[in-house]
Amino acid sequence: MTQFKFSKRVPADGTDAVGAILKAAADPQIISFAGGLPAPELFPVKEMKAAVDKVFATHGQEAMQYGAAKGVTALRELIQHHVKEKENVDAELDNVLVTTGSEQVLDLVGKAFVNPGDTVLVEQPTYLCALDVFKTYGANFAGVEMDEQGMKMDALEEALKSRPNTKLVYTVPNFQNPTGRTMALDRRQKLAELAAKYDVYVLEDNPYGEIRFAGQHVPAVKSFDKTGHVFYMSTFSKTLAPGFRLGWLVADADVVNKLTVLKQSADLHTDNLVQYAVAQFFADNDVDAHVREISDLYGKRKQLMADGIKQYFPAGVKYTDPEGGMFLWVEVPGVDDTVELFKECLKHNVAFVPGDPFFAGKPQPGAFRLNYSNAPEDKIKAGMKQLGEALQDAVAG
Ligand code: PMP
């Protein structure tokens, strides 16, 4: 057997704990609230086919040819106007980079800014793939405490003072993955100020902000940025189609230029056909109405899930009540081993993602993430009953 000499970037244990969880949850017997998939029944397949047909008729050769690393101009212009309309973010074309999923922004920012040993401050808990990405570049993490209003700014400032080698603060301010929490307006302003004061960068990751089914929109941290310290990223994955792998970065032109060079080394450019098709789709359809339909459906599903928690879960269980997005977060007191709890729930044919991998530091026992966007209503009702029974057993045992 060959002992391959992998680089230091490859995780030494080589295991994919979350992959194993999702695999176990994929058994057709099991009602899974584990994954993070949008509702496929709302994918605008017919309209997108019409957009693709039009692209082949009007830009067939450009769509099939190599293209610009920064992206198709029509799509970059669309993104420029979109961030102004939705988030009050002022951007020139030079500030926009199209990426292969917004996941690529995480990778490019990690590659461009994180030297081994640099500190990356993250919400506690945070998006686990972001931890994985920054880990490959040798980041040291420190978790910053959250409450229902998002990352606590006093805790963040303490962390910034005590860790002068901090490079990056990573936040998912809207309907965070995994908790569903949203950062309050005053904290967003403060976050932009702290980034400038301590000369660190904020990576604002906003895949879910448009999927709001209750409450008032809160403008992006980037809209308060006066110094270029905030990098804003988002995606078409939750509003149109994750399979298209289309995301974007809005940042200072210098940052965009450097990341473009790195992107060129990674994949030359993002798929042209998909870029043209999405731009065409926006031109021909009422995308706001489409996003409203998604939000309404997820709002109903979230409510069913919350009703299920109230009806079936043991007393004392805490849970978040998101105003949008795809996830809520549950904390079951008295549980020490959430992975064991997961295994017990599998026996009751229901699944979630245990909280542990979302923590940069010590995990919070008994916490887990539930997804409500993907399962139809009857499955949510049945699954919450099963989950409630499993938790009652676990707490009693
Ligand atoms: N950031 C967060 C917080 C996410 O939840 C996801 C998707 N799970 C991504 C980034 C990546 O999304 P995509 O690459 O599909 O744009």
Automatic annotation (TrEMBL):
Needed co-factor(s): pyridoxal 5'-phosphate
Domain Aminotransferase class I/classII large: 44-384
One Gene Ontology molecular-function label: transaminase activity
Organism lineage: Bacteria, Bacillati, Bacillota, Bacilli, Lactobacillales
UniProt keywords, alphabetically: Aminotransferase, Pyridoxal phosphate, Transferase
Family annotation (CDD domains): AAT_like (cd00609)
Designated name of the protein: PLP-dependent aminotransferase family protein
Species of the source: Limosilactobacillus pontis
